Amino acid sequence: MSDVATPPLHRTEEQSAGAAALVDRVSAALPLASVYVVLCSVYAFEAWKRVTPWLFTDELELTQLSRSIAATGRAARRGQAHSPDSIYTYLIAPLWLIHEVGTAYAGIKYLDVFVMASVVFPTYFLARLLVGRKAALFAAAGAGAIPSVAYSSYIVEETVAYPYAALCLFLIVKALVVRRRGWTAAAVLATLLGAAVRGELVMLPVALVFALMFVAWSSDRARARRRSWSLGDWIGALTLAFGAIFLVSGIASHHVWEWQVVTRAYKHRLIVEGNWAAGSLAIGIGMIPLVAGLASLVRAPGEEPDRALRMFRCAALGGLVAFGLYTAIKAAYLSTVFATRVEERNLIYVAPLLFVGTAVVLERRRVNLAALVAAAAYVAYLAGYAVYHAVGSPYEMGVRLYSDALGFAIAQQANLQLFWTPSTVRLVLVLVLAGGLAALLAPRFLRDRTGLAGAISAALAVAIVAWNLTGEIAAAAGTNQYASREVPALGRPFSWVDDVTGGRPTLYLGQGVSDQTSEWLLEFWNRSITGVSSLDGTIKGPGPAGGPNITADGTVYWSGAPTDLGLQYDYAVEDYPCVDFAGTEVADHVYRTGDTVKSWRLIRLTQPNRLLAECTGISPDGWTGPGESNYFRFGGGRGGWLRVVVSRRDWGGPTPPSPYQVLVGPLQINSNQEPQLIHVTAERNGSIASTKTQVVWLRAPADRFAARVVVDSKFVPCQVEPQVSSDCRALGAEVSYRFFARRP
């Protein structure tokens, strides 16, 4: 029995060897897993602190698309079919199957954290092709701690695009090193799918092409051939190279409008705004990774040939050129059609390459001195001059957080918390750069003291990661401060519409909206709001926001003819009193727009949907502008009264009294399907002075009617009292209308 029960000796040895191998694998994976878990813990806490989205329209648009995918399987914005934009919308769509918006939003934030922090894995595996485990851990931790990882609590595509780009770059280098079909196919397929993850990743195939070109150029055969070139050969080669660039640029100009605009008319902006983005990235990652990363691309004196290192250099240079070019072109183009911005957000994908290059320099303790000096000079220019004189203010310290360039966050929080000025920040950056360079060069002078040299390199690595994590925490603090500041713009409870409607179709209809933030927040937190519009075109996207047509009796329709009413809603959130629906008021909600506190009303609508009244030409703070205000009553006015308040109670400046007229008459729908005052049947005249208020009562016509207030003398506050007011609107008076069946 003992012979049967006792396993053979060779099987026992095999099991012991297998167990030992498993322990070794777990032990090897534990440090990297620990880095991932620690980073996820920090970022999950930051996500928990972020109470609401605020980066609109980005976060709302992706929410609309993903909610539509979850509900119908197709992407749409406010019910209108639209491209899904990214696989990210499919990734988060299942979480919108959770009924409670707050719970679904929390789930998306935590999923984003786990996905974006996973950049540590491809970065580590890329670094392991070149360096040992400790140096690779540094590269992974650095790439996983850059300030832009604060996007992990946003609903944005970067959460997937950043680790995906790192994965593609790893596959490119791996395929170039091992030259196997499987790895090559994986690299090609992954890069081709990049644009489906995020538009910027369309540059991944371009980076691959550049890498192959650099591989061919740096090959032994090409170097041997170039050794035999004469001066004429070099001139010819340069001529062909420039010819190829011009040819590609011409083809691109023919097919890509943005390329044509920038390269033909705004070449200088390519350089300037590209440098701004690089400068923000340099500050965010602590400058030294950019210096060492660039210097690592040049062969160091006495360096032994290393295929993996050469392939990495080719791929890294390709990635830097591709994403640098994309960032510069996009920033320059945006400056012509939108705003002049620092677009670091599009350049963050090169960060893993820079950290791997830095790991190579730190571990091998060898660097090309000329390349290091050139890179240091460039980074000093970026951080000390280019970004200091960038758009806005030095280091963008005039704002709490710059959403497109989170690399500035460490300077912005230093200004808020430590009262650092731009000059202080510039001095600190210079000292950090000088100290980092000294640490990089120390091994050259400590060749006989390897222990001390290793300790200095390790200390520098720890300091770099600490700087990055500090910047990330600063960026997260800034975004959470913004989120907390937006809470009053919507007011709690956030989901007050869903709580009443139970998810039934609800329309938001506004008027005179100058800041759409409160509406965007309302739309995000209440998924029953499926239609968004305004009476005067002041509500915009994302998604359709065209105004409704209205019949003479106030019936609302969304088609070309009143015989086809189109979609009808069960409820409406109205911007009362300038939007007044027929129906039953079931809830109201206080919100804030700027410094003005207002109230929404939730109405259970009649069928068909019908407006009782509307007014136009009144801003959210109650003032009329260059045009005149109008009031249209669709519900009939037999026996009613119209109260009109004309006031300048909130203006005490030295302006003379202004005459005004209140006009009333019948209402008619014109050929543009808009209500208008036909002719005047009653008129009241008066004069309004600073700090004064006047109330006018008018008997309403028997049928539906229109009213208008004309203020003769407008004024511009910032011109009357430039030391007191920054409001440069042309203002008439603060006007309000209200209809009463009986005069109070």
Task: Give a quick set of tags describing it.
alpha+beta, 19 strands, 5-stranded mixed sheet, elongated, 3 domains, single chain
Structure description:
The protein has 744 residues and is α+β, with helices and mostly antiparallel strands. The chain folds into 3 domains: 19-228 and 270-486, no CATH class; 496-614, no CATH class; 629-740, Jelly Rolls, CATH 2.60.120. Helices cover 51% and strands 15% of the residues. The protein contains 25 helices and 19 strands. Strands 8, 11, 12, 14, 15, 16 and 18 form a 7-stranded antiparallel beta sheet that branches. A 5-stranded mixed beta sheet has the order 4-3-7-10-9. A hairpin with a 5-residue loop joins strand 14 and strand 15 (675-677). It is elongated, with a radius of gyration of 32 Å. The N and C termini lie far apart (107 Å). The model has no long low-confidence stretch (mean pLDDT 91).
Number of folding domains?
3
How big a fraction of the residues is strand? 5-15%
Number of helices: 25
Number of strands: 19
Low-pLDDT regions: none
Overall pLDDT metric: 91
Write down the Rg. Answer: 32 Å
* Backbone structural class: alpha+beta
Shape: elongated
Q: How would you summarize this macromolecular structure in one to three sentences?
A:
The protein is α+β, with helices and mostly antiparallel strands.
